[in-house]
């Protein structure tokens, strides 16, 4: 396994072809070269990639293991011959003749290629670097568009189904060891965090967004029409943001999860993300901004309890303004009056008592459901309305960062016309998309790569494994 090979690089046909191609180009006059620049650029790219593929094929072949037997994970395999393997590299597909082994102990055992184990490949024989690029594209656009973009870029030429499989496979690998990998990513970026004296606020938020699901039942309705969207379930998003003294965002981390009861995984991610931050920034205020959904505030209160820190709860101003406007308009107030009350809520300290008193009077006077419902809304969230005090401290009063996450992280990718998802594929997309939007994707792959299945040993025992003989 330690044998290395040397060869004359100039003897590689693709290398000679590239050298000749460049030499012919240099013999052209400047006017001739200018007239054929576009064709030359495309051809040079193709020639260069052909050299890359040829070198990869030679390099892969020399890493093959040709021995009577190997041991992988304590299981013995016996050499069965050779076959052609098809691999996807960053330069495109290559074919390599490699040695095949079958599990010892009779017919029908598992068959593996030693070369695949040595290289630590992903899914359907993707190199880790090629898989990283592929999943990055799929996290950004649908697989059909990703295949076109890769082809136009002049590198890989996988089919949409090929891209779909490698993304799902890699997503499953990530989910199987998600906690450890996320810890590794956080540890790797510790040196890139803003200094403790710069960060004044640590803000968290979470919310849900409906996504089309293939296995989601229709919601039964009253009469002829169903209630709510058909075939949808609620995915969840979370954000953790660091702000400086002036209220400028220094860092934003985003999380996206497919529909899950009680948002358990998102809950775990928020705790794990905040724990090192509250320790590293002990002087920073910790706040939570969200809409009035009880589920969001339940999770936030439990996160605070698990961390053992005080989290200032703040109702998103823009949701509060919508509820206030709905109530006032139901009472017949015009746009100017509504705007005046919203401005008071934003800029006047202690105004929540006046809002509740006003809505109480209007509710008793008009007895309309819209007024009563929003009256209860402000009573339930009175302790989360402190916008004037927050603005004085340059703290956020709205969940705009969270709303943007729901839109750009989930909706823009997963709610295109005709789309419907199942959990594994959707979660793989959300995982890599959230890592990319958090600036963590490359570090995530650096953490994932060492965990890919790899490694083998030469089997010193060449005897065939067979059932034990019966006693005489």
Task: Describe the protein.
This protein has 472 residues and is of the alpha+beta class. It has 4 domains: 54 residues; 121 residues, no CATH class; 111 residues, Ribonuclease H-like superfamily/Ribonuclease H (Nucleotidyltransferase, domain 5, 2-Layer Sandwich), CATH 3.30.420; 81 residues, no CATH class. Helices cover 50% and strands 17% of the residues. It contains 18 helices and 10 strands. A 5-stranded antiparallel sheet has the order 4-3-2-1-10. Strands 7-6-5-8-9 form a 5-stranded mixed sheet, sandwiched between helices. α1 packs antiparallel against α3 and α5 packs across α6. The chain is elongated. 32% of the residues are buried. The C terminus is likely disordered.
Please outline the major beta sheet.
Answer: 5 strands, antiparallel
Count of β-strands: 10
| Percent in strands | 15-25%
Assign a percent range to the helix content. 40-55%
What would the principal axes of the Cα set say about the shape?
A: elongated
Average pLDDT over all residues: 91
Largest sheet strand order? 4-3-2-1-10
Structural class: alpha+beta
Tally of discrete structural domains: 4
Q: With helices defined by DSSP (H or I, 4 residues minimum), what is the helix count?
A: 18
Distance between the termini: 43 Å
Low-confidence stretches: 466-470
- How large, in whole angstroms, is the Cα Rg? 30 Å
**SSE topology string:** HHHEEEEHHHHHEEEHEHEHHHHHHHHE
């Amino acid at each position: 396994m330690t044998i290395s090979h040397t060869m004359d690089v100039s003897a590689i046909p693709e290398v000679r072809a590239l050298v000749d191609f460049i030499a012919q180009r240099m013999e052209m006059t400047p006017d001739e070269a200018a007239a054929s620049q576009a064709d030359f650029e495309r051809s040079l790219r193709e020639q260069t990639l052909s050299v890359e593929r040829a070198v990869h094929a030679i390099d892969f072949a020399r890493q093959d293991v040709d021995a009577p037997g190997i041991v992988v994970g304590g299981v013995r395999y016996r050499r069965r011959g050779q076959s052609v393997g098809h691999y996807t590299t960053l330069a495109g597909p290559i074919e390599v003749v490699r040695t095949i082994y079958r599990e010892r102990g009779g017919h029908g055992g598992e068959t593996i290629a030693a070369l695949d184990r040595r290289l630590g490949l992903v899914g359907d024989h993707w190199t880790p670097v090629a898989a990283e690029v592929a999943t990055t594209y799929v996290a950004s656009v649908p697989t059909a568009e990703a295949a076109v973009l890769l082809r136009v870029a002049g590198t890989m030429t996988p089919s949409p189904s090929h891209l779909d499989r490698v993304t799902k496979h890699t997503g499953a690998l990530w989910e199987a060891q998600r906690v450890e990998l996320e810890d590794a990513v956080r540890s790797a970026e510790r040196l890139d965090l803003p200094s403790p004296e710069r960060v004044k606020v640590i803000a968290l938020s979470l919310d849900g967004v409906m996504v089309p699901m293939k296995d989601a039942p229709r919601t039964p309705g009253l009469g002829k029409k169903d209630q709510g969207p058909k075939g949808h379930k609620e995915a969840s998003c979370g954000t953790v943001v660091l702000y400086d003294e002036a209220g400028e965002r220094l860092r934003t981390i985003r999380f996206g999860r497919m529909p899950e009861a009680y948002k358990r995984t998102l809950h775990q991610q928020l705790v794990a993300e905040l724990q090192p931050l509250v320790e590293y920034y002990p002087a920073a205020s910790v706040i939570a901004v969200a809409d009035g959904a009880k589920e969001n505030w339940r999770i936030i209160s439990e996160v605070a309890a698990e961390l053992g820190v005080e989290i200032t709860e703040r109702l998103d101003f823009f949701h509060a303004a919508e509820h206030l406007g709905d109530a006032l308009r139901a009472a017949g107030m015009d746009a100017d009056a509504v705007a005046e009350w919203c401005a008071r809520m934003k800029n006047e300290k202690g105004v929540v008592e006046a809002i509740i008193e006003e809505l109480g009077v209007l509710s008793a006077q008009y007895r309309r459901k819209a007024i009563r419902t929003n009256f209860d809304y402000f009573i339930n969230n009175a302790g989360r309305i402190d916008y004037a005090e927050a603005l004085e401290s340059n703290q956020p009063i709205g969940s705009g960062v969270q709303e943007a996450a729901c839109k750009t992280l989930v909706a823009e990718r997963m709610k295109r016309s005709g789309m419907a998802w199942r959990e594994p594929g959707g979660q793989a997309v959300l995982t890599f998309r959230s890592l990319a939007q958090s600036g963590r994707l490359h570090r995530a792959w650096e953490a994932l790569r060492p965990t890919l299945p790899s490694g083998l040993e030469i089997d010193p025992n060449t005897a065939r494994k067979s059932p034990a003989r019966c006693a005489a």
